[in-house]
Amino acid sequence: MEKREIMAIHLLILISLSVLTIFLFSKYSTEDSYITYRYAQNLVDGKGFSYNSGDEHFGTTAPFYALILALFGYLGFNIPSLGGILSAFSLGMSTILIYLMTLKRGYPLVGLLCGSFVFLNPWFLQTFGSETFFQLLMVVGAFYFYDQKKYLPTAVFCALAFLTRADGILPAIIISVDYMISNRKFPVKGTILFFVLCVPFFLFYYLNFNALLPATLEAKQAQYASGLWRNFLPGILNFSKLLLKENILFYFFMPLFLVGGILILFSRKIWLLMATWAILHILGYTFLKVSFYHWYPIPLLFLLMLMSAFSLHLILSVPRFFEEKQTKKWNMKIFNQDIKLSIARYKEINPFLKWTYRILSIVVLSSIILVFSGGVRAYSKMFRSLPFPKLELYAKAGSWIAKNTPTNASLAAMEIGYLGYYAQRKVIDLIGLVTPEVSEHLRRGDFQWVIKKHQPDYFIYNEEFKAWLEPITYQPWFEKSYEHVIDMSQSGYPFNLRIFKKVLPLEIQEGKLLVMDSRQDVSNFDVGEIIGGREIGQTFYCTHDHLARIQVMLATFSRENHHEVIFHLKKSPAAKEDIYTERFNASSVVDNAYRSFDFPSIPDSKGKWFYFSFESPESRKGDAITIWANSGDGYDNGSLYIDLKKSEGDLRFITYYYKYEIFINEK
């Protein structure tokens, strides 16, 4: 067959897989994708670009994707169905672009195998509906156009990848660095176009949410910090075990990954750039210390499928290898030769090598058939299980709430995607994606705070999360204020969904508790008398908001002193204005004891440096106080200052912040 005919057949296979996937899986979307769907649906319904109408919280990781869905929603499309269709289309186009890149280099079979592996891998199928595949298409598109040396389209796709989700900045950085190394100049036009496309959207986000980036990163870091969620790498390993348990034939890919990785290192630069993106993506999420979600490893998995395809191409090119081995030194240009040419020269190989290759080919092709059949079985098994029982139960519960509760009712739940979309009620998110202030408490594994704070009208308790949520239902205040309304179940899902209704308001009050923040509680010398012309101070770093008290250990030299002492709190030693000033008489100082300086709490003190100091312009030798200090380096986040000059050691001090808590009145 002609090369054009072969290319047409290959493309037809990839397009057919895309269409088949759209037909079979377009109605399926992941649980979290329905959070983005609700943002889009609310915008279509005139409720604003928010999850809970009127709430400015930036709780979707994919605002640009939500805007695209909303645009089609205005045109009458069903948003959840559109999410599934867009996922399948994006995945199909990504594989086609990879195929075109391999075709350009003379090894189209690599692209065909890669696309086939992708579509028959159940990990990809379980990621439908979210922004992941749309972003994947933008990233692959950026590398495709960069490979074509079409730099303005490259900038467009980089911008769209970044707008889709913040981690999409990685391809832009990788491509820009490679461009500067290769061309020894800065990509001015592409950079300008990138910012022209991105800035309007981020300005819109800031005006709508009062934030440039979603708050979801903080929530997922809090999930990991709580110890209740797996970290990124352990999560990947655990999910991989589950897939391998479903189909042990996927072990076949493991040696292929290694061989394919080596081939990519010695192959064209564009593959190495894509591998760099996938690896940095994984490392980034690992170092950010976020909880694992199964769609995060998609870039790495896409790379592994490409590596497997490279390995199989090498094996099928064995005849060409042996021929070149007999005639001249072999080199990596084997990948620029068409498979067809290798097989055509098969007869020229000696009988021993011919039988060796024949056996090897049978083994490899049989393995490919078995892997594909395993993928087809996983494919059909997933199709037969649709809609997933758990998600169907959530949708049923959401519909029940929509029919049986007032429109102004609120509900709290652990997984809010399907529930929130179908209930169309105000949602209180127990894990903090769409509800502010939850993350701080979630880090401690505290699920009760959000219930006490927001007092939802309905509490949705999934028995799957019994260890986390059941303690709430046993609290006296919960038993007093909530009653069990209904249990819901779904065939195929082993856990019940219990719905509780608030019947009495919680008798609560909000209070504040003073908690220690920073502490340098060691001293071995005093700084000398604080007399006129001297200023003794200390810098420190605040790790919490609402800084409200500083305690400093003062001393009197076992005598009564009489002059005014002035305490200053500033942003830095060089700051001209005080945040707080307090004057007191030296006669009120207790010898060798902490003195407290209380001031109006500073709401945004977290992550900032401050400086406090003492002076006494009228004090003289023999009639002045002093401050205890430590000459060691026991406090890393600040320094002692004498007369505005940094000195060795630290003052002896403690800082406090207000922690706002909710107390239940049991009376």
Short overview:
50% of the residues lie in helices and 18% in strands. The chain contains 24 helices and 18 strands.
Helix fraction, binned, reads 40-55%
Distance between the termini: 87 Å
Average pLDDT reading? 83
The share of residues in extended strands comes to 15-25%
Computed structural class: alpha+beta
Tell me the domain tally: 3
Shape call: globular
Number of extended strands = 18
Radius of gyration from the CA trace? 32 Å
Query: How many distinct helices?
Result: 24
List keywords for this structure.
single chain; 667 residues; alpha+beta; Jelly Rolls; 3 domains; seven-stranded antiparallel beta sheet; six-stranded antiparallel beta sheet; 18 strands
Description:
Helices cover 50% and strands 18% of the residues. With 667 residues, the chain is α+β, with helices and mostly antiparallel strands. The protein starts with a helix and ends with a strand. Strands 6, 7, 9, 12, 14, 17 and 18 form a seven-stranded antiparallel sheet that branches. Strands 11-10-13-8-15-16 form a six-stranded antiparallel sheet, with no helix packed on it. It has a five-stranded mixed sheet with strand order 2-1-3-5-4, with helices on both faces. It folds into three domains: 3-316 and 350-384, no CATH class; 389-506; 512-664, Sandwich (Jelly Rolls). It contains 24 helices and 18 strands.
